[in-house]
Predict the structure.
Amino acid sequence: MSVQKLVSEYFSNPEAKELAWYRRHGGYEGALKALDEMKPQEIIDEVISANLRGLGGAGFPTGRKWSFVPRDTGKPIYLAVNADESEPGTFKDRYILEWDPHRLLEGIIICAYAVGIHTAYIYIRGEYVRPAETLQGAIEEAYQEGVLGKQVLGKDFSLDVHIHRGAGAYICGEETGLLESLEGKKGWPRLKPPFPAVVGLFGSPTVINNVETLSHLPRIMVNGSQWFAEIGCERSGGTRLFALSGSVKKPGVYELPMGTSLHELIYQHGGGIWNDKALKAVIPGGASAAVLTHQESDVQLDFDSCIKAGSMLGSGAVIVMDEDVCMVKAAHNIMRFFAHESCGQCTPCREGTAWVYRILTRILEGQGTPDDINSLLEIGGNMSGTSICALSDGAAMSFRSYVNKFTSEFEYHIRHGKCEFDER
Amino acid sequence: MTFEFTPENQEQFLEILNRYPRKRAAMLPTLHLAHQQQGFITPEVEQYVGRILEVPLVDVREILTFYTLFFRRPMGRHHIRLCMSISCWIRGASQIKDHLDRTMGVPSGEITPDGSFSWEAVPDCLGACELAPMMQLDKDYHGNLTPDKVEHILAEAPGNHSKADQETLRETKKQKNKKTN
């Protein structure tokens, strides 16, 4: 059986972003079914039994997230759509925004109706200028045609959708950093509890969902939760967009069922390692995830299997490294990112990421000392579980895995003051 | 030099305000609008934005400097962001950076003497790793870069990019090459 494309079917079809075309091909039928035939609670139950997980990175069950929202506070409920795709290696949501914006809008309608939301903000990273333009075009067309606005699809339900552009800050992809940014502040994450479901945007109950997560909803409504759950594996329903990059012959976005093997993605879909080199290591879920060695890399791509393998599926960004990639330099590159993007609120993260980056820089410059390896691991220990958000934990999980799994490369750099691999 | 929105932008600003239950939430879209109008945010713009959104000036400055996409001084007519993140690095972003260093004749973060380009090598992933190595020129993404392809893209940069600019570019490059040789 060929791989089912639930959200990527229209990628590379320039017509799909037009409302009329989308509707002619079954678009907005999921939303109509939800609005016409289902009660809000039935939709939530359906999404729970579909095993749809949060595809931004955390993998939290979507329907359960919705069920935490209190309905009786007298305050409006908001939806914040996370389109701040910034985890290094991740570029899947961009494809939905560029090629299939109506699928996202349809998902937003379904979520909004299920939770009782009348205002949604799509927080899109500032660099995505063109995707934001495409999305804005789709929103305007949806308003003109009565798909959004006072009477969504002609029904007795109102919904406004606004784009909110970010301005270059990785931390705003963190749920509460995103909310702060939406409120017109710097994106400093909030202490939890209270969780955003209860006290979120403007002090109101708020749902925060990723672009890809919402884009799965239309088909779940049309085909049912059982159909969706059966495509995936035990605790993760459906498919997922995997963003494959690095040392592969065919980098790109591949939609595959949850639980597909990592080797199938790399060798079958990605065409194998470029220049016919050997696989050295692979990051299964964005730069925050622990690197897997070649020997550890035969894993299933679902949230639980990746945790079992000591890493995480995260944003579904699979970054492949061939035998010539220096792991000290790779760790240095990743820590430059985290040191740059740490928001500065918590000391262990602000100082830790910067220290680690400086130590790795020193090692690369040939000034490393034998103590450096222990220092790195010790700092990593102090960066885990000591800060408000997960940036610090992600950074620590990441660089410790390089130091622990490729210790000899760090030792070589420290001992010889130079690199044993290709210059990059 | 005082700043205020053009009539069209003023209209757009009022439309932006309507999207939010609180004025302050319009901060990023308002800064984007001012940035688009003037190309960079001056202290006068900060004061203006603080006044129209009823936000203390110190907060405007804090927000402005927290985010990386707002320029606080004039940049080149075209701005380049070269992605240096992990996937681009694996596929040769460092060579492209070296090339831009030579071609631009000014280091990352600076403007060419003729003002036609400014460029920066950024540590954050731009979200287009399938195109690695890639860069953003103004609004658009360009990928699978090679030094030749970069030259071609720069030469074709749309709008106010005169032939003279290209000649200056080549000249700077020649001089730089002489130096390095």
